[in-house]
Amino acid sequence: MKVLKFGGTSVGSEEAIRQVGAILKKKQEKDQLAVVVSAVGGITNRLENIAQLCGAGDPAYSGELEEIRTIHTSLYKVLVGLEAPETIDTILGELQEICRGVYLLKELTPRSHDFILSCGERLSSFIISHFLTSEQLSCALFDSREYILTDSQFGNANVKFKETIHNLNQVSLDQINIFPGFVAATNAGETITLGRGGSDYTASILAKAYNASELEIWTDVDGLMTADPRLVKNARILETVSYEEALELSHFGAKVIYPPSIQPALEESIPIIIKNTFAPEKPGTSIVLNGHGNGEMIRGISSIQDIALLNLSGSVMVGIPKFSYRLFKALSDAEVNVILITQASSEHTICAGIAGSDSPKAKAAVELEFELEIAQQKINPVEIEEDLSILALVGSNMQNQVGVSGDMFHVLGKNGVSIKAIAQGSSERNISAVIPKKNLRKALNVLHESFFLSEMKRINLFIIGVGNVGKAFIAQLASQYEFLKEHHHLNIQVTGIASSTKMKFESEGINLEDWSSTLRTGQAFDKKTFISEMVDMNLRNSLFIDITAAAEIAGLYAEVLQHSISVVTPNKIAATGAYADYLDLKSATRRFRSQFLFETNVCAGLPVLSTLSDLVRSGDQVNCVEAVLSGTLNFLFNEYDGTEKFVDVIKKAKDLGFTEPDPRLDLFGEDVKRKILILIRESGFEAELDEIDLTSFLPASAMDSSSIEDFYGKVEAEEEHFKQMYHQANGKGCKLRVVARYKDQQATVALEEVDDSHPFYNLEGKDNIVLFYTNRYPEQPLVIKGAGAGADVTASGIFADVLRIAQSND
Fold first, then answer.
1. Do 221 and 237 contact (CB within 8 A), yes or no?
2. Taking Cα atoms as reference points, which of 775, 757, 462, 742 lies closest to residue 602?
């Protein structure tokens, strides 16, 4: 014997019912079948609406009843090929009589309510049994009310198993045996229901009674999944789970099965198979005694969306018995279901998670129970926190596994998800956390990516700045996209992008092959709107990338970091502002579990800052820094030999993309000052920009220019000045280098002549070099050398920072 249950979507249309018939025709060739059916899809909700209309005295119920009649008579006719028989009219007539009585009295009792709802399953089971018979299948219809007996708790009846099993075993069964789900009867013969979703329970009762070899739950999904696929796109099917895991998953929002339905099957160790009516060839999920998977620690991540927390606190509660009893009795008397409970060991606070819709009556019930203590200020006023959700990690293999909770909280904290309450039973099969409802989707996705390692990790980039470096970065990202997915399980998407005039957002990611056209269709750029949209999208693993040199964009970093969104930038302004502001940004990264990476602030793509960080974190002390930090200036002095005007060499560097859009930023030395300041600060020393002594190699006239063209003109007029510098150095066998130096708390930037014995002498083209003299490298410095300018190398440094964050566990 096998028991099969078909849900509302499985019997929701002519095509669906014919599919059910095909499944049963194949199954009955090997096994005798007990088949439980739900109401036709959507009918239970319609009946609930009719019941409420009747109770309110609204005559609109009669029109709804006619629609119910039309749906079922039409369905019977297309399936069986005949007009609907008298039995359907009888059921509909009984329904109409009860509804009219409720309407006239304007009183919907639990007994009447159950009768109205029961008609859906009674009608569907009749229609399906006749359809199967018309298909020449050996089929019998049984009224579950004649066999399943319960107490008189209308709406959520408790089954009397001894009598029920006895009754079912007196039945003479056919090859296919149809039972309406959800419905039962009291000892007095009154129609009653087993609770919403109770068709699963009906099926489990039959499985227990007939000692079935399997209980199959047929629905519209392929099985139990690792997470809600509506919220987590990468959710996958679980091939097997244990009974206990299925109970935990179903309690916390996995509505493929109805929680009590598992218990009767569990008692008899009957496997439960979740199958898809519309894809019967797929294996589905098997719920069995020892279904712990292939050693997977976490089997699923489940959730309940609309939760409120009720908090009762007060010093008088400490060490006094019965406070918890009184709280939960008050909630029970008010028919408020408690989903989650936490209490601190100090006993000062008790917190209960309840359905959000129950919060008004829960608050009223508890305030009434503790009215005297609240009035005497022995207990604080009851607090309700709403707009929350519960998520739960479920897995039997979590038992005795160290670090699961820590990993969970780390991942959530890293993504800016605050935890309001936590609970874990001693069985260690479930770790539950209450979080803000707005963060549920993000939290589920980051946990899913963290605990199901074979899945892709989604990274969402929000980019401001699409100049030369921005374009190069996007091109590199596009070229590496498939490689990163295949080899590193990273799905890096540009979710938001902005130029100085336009901005565009796409939650599923912007097509990088045609990003510029997409950007042109965007809205007008506004920096505050860009940040607001990024925050409101609330996507997991979000990174903000500033590829501008704008102070107003750098001024946004503090706000971004406070939303637990990491920042990557080649923009030097934030890291070289007031030292107090620099420290605030560093502090924000620690407080809000975000990162602020600016490797490309110094020497473009060279690993200068990351190397320096490793030195300092490992306990080394930086004593002196000597560096050529401007690839632009190094290119100029490598190219200039007096045969070509210095101004023309500057223009060549600009055309090659080696300078800022305004080359004065490079030649005035301000850029080098900012770079050495960053090295000083990252070495652990306090310093301000105006404390660095800059000696300019430009004549005074060139320092005072109103525009780029004016600057070019003044540099050209001072050509003899540059020739003299070159020939003086060349005559000594030296080369000119703009050197930044920090030693003994003194920082300088100046043009120097270096001979062939110095490491700076052989710098080529636009190369940079940094020498770190430390306690570990006192005489022979640690040297970092390489290309220090250009869009491609700067873009590669940005890319490296993005990957550093994407793959970070910090």
1. no
2. 742
* The predicted structure's pLDDT at residue 403: 76
| Helices vs. strands in the chain: H and E counts, helices first | 29, 30
Compute the average pLDDT of residues 769-795.
Answer: 93
For residue 398, the number of C-alpha atoms closer than 13 Å in the C-beta half-sphere is: 26
The set of catalytic residues is 675
3-state secondary structure at position 596: strand
What is the rounded distance in angstroms from the CA atom of residue 26 to the CA atom of residue 742? 83
Measured CA to CA, the distance from residue 83 to residue 81 in angstroms comes to 7
* Continuous H helices in 640-707: 646-655, 664-667, 670-682, 700-703
The 10s digit of each residue's pLDDT in 113-127 is 999 999 999 999 999
Q: What is the pLDDT of residues 385-423, one digit of tens each?
A: 999 999 989 887 777 677 788 889 888 988 889 999 998
Strand order through the sheet with 33-37: 139-141, 176-180, 33-37, 2-6, 214-219, 272-276, 285-288, 240-242
pLDDT band at 346 (very low <50, low <70, confident <90, very high): low
For residue 392, the SS3 value is strand
Kindly state the tokens that stand for 581: 């502001």
pLDDT above 90 for 315: no
Longest dimension (CA), the chain: 117
pLDDT digits (tens, 9 = 90+) for 658-683: 887 889 989 999 999 999 999 999 99
3-state secondary structure of 520: helix
Query: Which of 584, 770, 579 is closest to 681 using CA atoms?
Result: 579
Q: Are 36 and 199 in contact (CB under 8 A)?
A: yes
Task: Determine contact, residues 725/698, Cβ cutoff 8 Å.
Answer: no
